[in-house]
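At your convenience, could you comment on the folded chain following this short note?
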Amino acid sequence: MNKTPSSDESKQMLKWLNQNRQMLLDLYKNQYVAYNANGLIAHSESLREVLELAEASKQIFAIYLVPRRTASIEILPIRFRTIARHDWQPNYHVKLKHRDIEMSTTMLVDSGAELSLISFKVGQDLGYALADAESKLLAETIGGRVEYVLRNVEMTIDEHSFIAAVAWLQTNTGGEQLLLGKEVVFDKFSIEFRQADEQILFIWRGDS
């Protein structure tokens, strides 16, 4: 079982990811990669395969699903670019667990998202499936409508575990970014963004 990285380890791993994102986009589109601060450990289009390879390495690691498109990270497919851009994204390590599948992954912390979001591929690989005759929900975005269904997932952030609802996309948006939204998460933690320091602070509040 993969050990949860410490706060310092997590910072160094995210630093590696930010510095090497373009390389991952160039070489490993639409693949899961297992990585840590020392570099790439394993890659595969199969989540189970990359988890097995990474576990066998006996190293601490996190999982990142590399987007298909190399031009951007997409948020339902809206993207803004400024002229003077601080090239940092507020990513954080989150462990997702459903039944016997567990992945320590990287999610974009989005204070504007009501729900956390996982892509169709990630949901499938975690073992989710549609029930017979299950109705899909619709969300409106600037880019159009997307279909999704709600699923509960066990999240672990900084060794604190809880159940949260996620929107499992049923529409292929062309991007695979995982979002960490407000529902449950922002009640459990006080969250501080420090862009100049390229850090996010999660302060546990529990059930208060």
